[in-house]
Amino acid sequence: MLLAGRAWKYGDNVNTDILFPGKYTYTVTERSEIARHALEDLDPTFVTDVQQGDVVVGGRNFGCGSSREQAVTCLLYNGVSAVVAASFSRIFYRNALNNGLLAIACPQAVAAIVAGESIAIDTEQQTIRCAAGEYPFPPLSASVMGIVEAGGLVAYVKRKLALP
User: Fold this and answer.
1) For 45-59, b where at least 16 C-beta lie within 10 A, e where not — what string?
2) Closest CA to 74 of 96, 106, 97, 45
3) Residue 44 burial by Cβ neighbours in a 10 Å radius (0-12, 13-18, 19+)
4) Which member of 44, 85, 112, 150 lies 3.0 to 4.6 Å from 62 by CB, making a disulfide possible if both were Cys?
C-alpha cells in the first residue's frame, strides 16, 4: 500500500482529550459532528484545511489518555490516512488498528518530517519518505495490514469468515 499526503505535525503526549475533546464524548454521535471537533483545542485550522490522505505526525506517547474511540474516528472522518509517531499509547494504537487507521512508530521519520510537507508511506517497502530522506519502519504483520486494508477489525473478521 502506498499512501501520500501532507504532514500535520504535533509534539509529545498528544492525548485523547486533545484529539477529541472529552466534553463531546457522550453528546456528539454523527460522523460529521465528530469530524468537526478533531484537534479543535490544539489546531483550529486542522478541520478546515485537512485533505483526504493527509498524515498526522506525532511525538512520543501519541494518543495517551482515555480509551475514547473518537480520538481515532475523528481523524478517519477527516480523511487522515495514517498516523506516524515516535511512539503510541497502547490503547490508541489498538483503537487505531481496530478502526482501520494505519499507525506507524518511526521516531527517525518523525524527527525529520517538517509540518506541511508532502510525505509518502510505502507499507510494502516499510519506508516513510519526506524531503530529508527515506526512513525504514518495522514490518507490519499480514494480519495488521489486513485489518487496515479492510477498514477495521470488524470488517476484517467478516471478510475472513465470509459473513455478509
Assistant:
1) ebbeebeeebbbbbb
2) 96
3) exposed
4) 85
Residue among 66, 64, 46 nearest 56 (CA): 46
- Phi, psi (rounded to 5 degrees) for 81: -95, -20
Residue whose C-alpha cell reads 480509551 in the numeric block: 67
C-alpha cell at 154: 470488524
pTM here?
0.95
CATH of the domain at 70: 3.20.19.10
Instruction: Indicate the pLDDT class of residue 90, thresholds 50, 70 and 90.
Output: very high
Number of structural domains the chain divides into: 1
69 in any annotated domain: yes
Answer whether residue 156 is part of any domain: no
8 A C-beta contact, residue 22 and residue 74: no
Higher per-residue confidence, 162 vs 11: 11
Looking at residue 111, its pLDDT comes to 98
Asked whether residue 164 is domain-assigned, the answer is no
Under a CB-based contact definition with an 8 Å cutoff, are residues 62 and 91 in contact? Answer: no
| CB count in 10 Å sphere of residue 91 | 18
Answer yes or no: is 68 within a domain: yes
